[in-house]
Amino acid sequence: MGHGPPEPGPAPPVAGIAPVAGTHTLNAVDVQVGQPQVGQRLTLRIEDLAFGGEGVGRADGFVVFVPFVAVGETVEVEITERKAHYARARLLRVLEPSPDRVDPACAHYGRCGGCQYQHLRYDAQLRVKHKQVTDLLQRIGGIDPSVVQPVVPCPRPYGYRNRIMVRSQSNKPERRMNVGFLRWDCGLVEDVRECKIAEPEINEQLQHVRAHPPPKSGLKVVLRLPPADWVVPPDSFFQNNFHLLPELVRTVREAVTRSGARYLVDLYCGVGFFALELAGCVQRFIGVEYDRRAVTAARENARQRNITNGSFLAGRVEEWLPQILQEMPAGQSVFLVDPPRKGLTPEAVQMLLQARPRALIYVSCHPATLARDLKALRDDGSYELVRVTPLDMFPQTQHAECVAELHRQGLSSE
Fold it and tell me: How many other CB atoms sit within 10 Å of the CB of residue 181?
């Protein structure tokens, strides 16, 4: 997002995306001997899409990553970076397009760093994400692929985000302020007129910011559509996709029901969303959150819903857990965790293993850290991973939400 050097060759049909060639010559390659060099042009066959969205090709066995491609495509690329064991390249032309390739909806696609998959049919995106989640869980966590369920699709693949953050950057040649997102290939800001994956109301807010831009470069502006009937402080977390949220709740609710638990402990509960949505599944619940403003909001959200079979505690989980386990025996409790992208800390993993709840439900927005944490939770044999359900909360992007369900091994009715 910004002003990068123009791409050589014919102008693409959509700015930033390489054109699909009508004809090709597969031997039209500058050099394919030894490791590729920066600036070298190659013809590659795309074998896979790595987590993060880049395609994987090989030049004489040497791995080359290329964005904005599809599996099975033959493409012409230019090497932009070379490391000891891999290289990166930019897409010049698609010589043999995949049947899964479509025209991206956004004029900024290919420069903006927000989306990675707009060039793929939506059903192909779901297949890609299922494979990526499965591969990560198997490679990092040693997890049997059969536990991974089909990806739950989003009913609205565009226009779904209820929150975006744009940045300002001075555009000196044009004497104006760019407002938008960071480009995928550099630190410049792409001047975004419309975000196709954002809610219409968010784009209305974006037009206001563009008409009245921040006074200087480097400032961030959060545009947000608040959820109806929920109290959420400005800096507190809420899911970014209202349209698939009912399916996420249903998935977690079914996991709680399967656990057979009488009690729910919602760790890192934020404004109480999951605890309150699941309150009817259990006799009693407790939510714990360090952010006191979020706890105040959670209590107000409970009051507005007349939910009285639970409570919210402000403070560190480690400090409250001994008291919680006195009130809610571990063998009759299900613990729910929904950590940030970095996942659980090693201390939190050990805390969960020592608490030994009947079941664990882990909601994750980063499959790689989920795989790492699931491995740690299963290493001593205490827990069996029953299923992992991916949900496409972030269509057109590399990201996927997952709900993992673990049951304690050898647990009798307590």
Answer: 22
Please tell me the predicted confidence (pLDDT) of residue 412.
Answer: 53
Crossing angle, helix 367-378 and helix 122-141, to 10 degrees? 30
As a three-state string, the secondary structure of the chain is: CCCCCCCCCCCCCCCCCCCECCCCCCCCCCCCCCCCCCCCEEEEECCEECCCCCEEEEECCEEEEECCCCCCCEEEEEEEEECCCEEEEEEEEEEECCCCECCCCCCCECCECCCCCCCECHHHHHHHHHHHHHHHHHHHHCCCHHHECCCECCCCCCCCECEEEEEEEEECCCCEEEEEEEECCCCCEEECCCCCCECHHHHHHHHHHHHCCCCCCCCEEEEECCCCCCCCCCCCCCCCECCCHHHHHHHHHHHHHHHCCCEEEEECCCCCHHHHHCHHHCCEEEEEECCHHHHHHHHHHHHHHCCCCEEEEECCHHHHHHHHHHHCCHHHEEEEECCCCCCCCHHHHHHHHHHCCCEEEEEECCHHHHHHHHHHHHCCCCEEEEEEEEECCCCCCCCCEEEEEEEECCCCCC
Q: Please name which of 184, 201, 203 lies closest in space to residue 192, comparing C-alpha atoms.
A: 203
Confidence (pLDDT) at 80: 97
What's the confidence (pLDDT) of residue 3?
37
Q: Which two tokens stand for residue 131?
A: 């494979």
Give the tokens for residue 88. 């990166």
The pLDDT score that the predictor gives to residue 101 is 98
**Cα–Cα distance between 178 and 343 in angstroms, integer?**
33
Give the residue from 104, 108, 237, 222 showing the smallest Cα distance to 158.
104
pLDDT average, residue stretch 201-205: 98
Q: At what angle do helices 367-378 and 346-355 cross, to 10 degrees?
A: 40
402 vs 412, more confident: 402
**Taking the CB of residue 361, how many other CB atoms lie within 10 A of it?**
26
7-36 pLDDT, tens per residue? 333 333 344 455 655 433 333 333 344 689
What would the pLDDT profile of 71-106 be if each residue is shown by its tens digit?
999 999 999 999 999 999 999 999 999 999 999 999
Longest dimension (CA), the chain: 72
Q: Is 356 left (phi over 0), alpha (psi -120 to 50) or beta?
A: left
The reported pTM is: 0.89
